[in-house]
Amino acid sequence: MKNIVDFLTIAEKLECEYRLTRMSDDMPQAVASHSWNMAMISMVLQPYFQNDYDMRRVMELCLIHDLPEAIAHDVPLHEQTPQVREQKHAAETAAVKQILGILQNERIADLFAEYEARQSKESQLVKALDVMDTAVQHMCAKDLAYVGSFENGFYWKLFFDDEFAKMFDFEPVLRRVLDEIRGRVSARLKDELGIDAVGYKK
Question: Which candidate, 46, 47, 48, 12, places its Cα nearest to that of 32?
């Protein structure tokens, strides 16, 4: 029981780890909230998926995919230079080893390995859901001005890029949802900030 309680103590820290994205109340999004929302998206969209997935596995991967950040912390995408990404990967690998050393649970170990390899259709779906939740937060954020304040519009340029959208094409419903979200964000940018989203497209 001690090991399980030690693990739960680490897992709780994911509720205290915050991402760059902001919520509709203008508060930063907790990493645990991000993971929960990915699971919610997968549940709602499941009837529309073109491919068959082990949905229990999908839910578990949603829960586990960012758990190392409870120890290694989140790093915003615009700060991830090649050197920073290398450091981030090393820190998260060490965090996984620490977590598995406490929990000693083969199923959790398999989930970490599956998400890292990104070979299964479930892990590929969860990666897309990871990005989809960020799109949802862009849509729901109380103030959109902060999104464009990083690296000369880095996040809007990525969000409206056609290559970015193509990563959802393996599941047509994901692409349709993204297109709806991008339409709503475009309207908000125009109405609230006087910005034409077309200017962010390559």
Answer: 12
pLDDT, tens only, 24-79: 999 999 999 999 999 999 999 999 999 999 999 999 999 999 999 999 999 999 99
d(CA 141, CA 137): 6
Cβ(174)–Cβ(168) below 8 Å:
yes
**Among 14, 44, 52, which residue's Cα sits nearest to residue 136?**
44
Q: What CA–CA distances, in Å, run from 63 to 21, 38, 39, 142?
A: 18, 8, 8, 26
- CA–centroid distance for 27 within its chain: 17
- Can you give the pTM of this predicted structure? 0.93
Domains located in the chain, CATH noted: 2-200 (1.10.3210.10)
DSSP class of residue 145? T
- The whole-angstrom separation of Cα 28 and Cα 176 is 27
